[in-house]
């Protein structure tokens, strides 16, 4: 009996996803638990496993964006044919109108290419990933000349790059340019470097003889910025005349932030807090924990812990507004914003108020790194009850953060800077930063919001209490 393959809903907010590539060829035998497709969502890219066994038959091509719950393929028994697409109803809530249909993928439908990335080898067609085809097109390489090392001989982008790396130096337009320092690189690397504004003479090549490869460019464009510097754009920077589509992560951010401002009565308080005690304690911890495996908390880690503890005293800010009223939430699950290429993610530290500060520091770093490297799971991005976001690394003192839908407040953190306090007509240098608390005035009034900020400031003034 034919088994439907439906686009899964990954996370509470997912409404649609893009089939980045099929990971098995048409007609291949699939076992339950085998990786079936690579799915790109508004938050993460994940491999989706088959929920049953059978012979795989896709009904939509790679690269198509479809709503959650939509039919995207079949798992069939030997000799079984897929049901007639015209007689297959779209799942409820899929967003397709009456009579709407998704493009079939049987190799014979007029105008529709059999666009599964790993296609039937018995039909004489190459097995290749979409990224491999993009790389090959950019370098003017015929995929028939490339040996695939992926599953079933499938060509992946690394195979194309290895092919380029092995090209001789006398092939006309494909000849290897040489950087001023004498290091060679492929035409693809030259093209990508130009698009990203990278000076190849300043790139360290990791290939044979110091050859510069694409991965070396990626290392340059994804390297974390210096803590005191403004982080550069990662990847190709937008240029005048470009059109940035409101799709994927960018589209989700646009919709959610617009909805947030439309649905809430948002107001922002600015509040200056002293950080002298935190800076002093952190310097001590660097020395005392130098020979231990305990992570030294960053200033943001201290602020995360203070924000969580203060919520325990001010539960109105750890809440959500529903039709029947303001629901004060039991758990304190702290989200923190992380800038990633194309937007931002908000990983969640669950039960943050219960964690000792070193453990909170470890989790925040692990989650931030996973988000930047694209390894974070949808479950690690769900369930936040309050969010902290920092622009201090960009030199910003005060800003107006926008509340994540479902929450009633968000705390912004500005840069650490010098302040002045007077003592008996003598100026004293202090270390301060400004907190920006945006709150939903439907749920919280100005005075309780100010009290919350004062509690955060009190906790930061005596930071030893934050360690446990």
How would you describe this protein?
This protein is of the alpha+beta class. It has three domains: 121 residues, OB fold (Dihydrolipoamide Acetyltransferase, E2P); 56 residues, E3-binding domain (Dihydrolipoamide Transferase); 219 residues, Chloramphenicol Acetyltransferase, CATH 3.30.559.10. It is 24% helix and 21% strand. The protein contains nine helices and 19 strands. Strands 9, 12, 15, 16, 17, 18 and 19 form a seven-stranded mixed sheet that branches. A four-stranded antiparallel sheet has the order 1-8-6-3, with no helix packed on it. A hairpin with a 2-residue loop joins strand 10 and strand 11. Helix 7 packs across helix 8 and helix 7 crosses helix 9. The longest helix has 16 residues. It is globular and about 85 Å long. About 13% of the residues have low confidence.
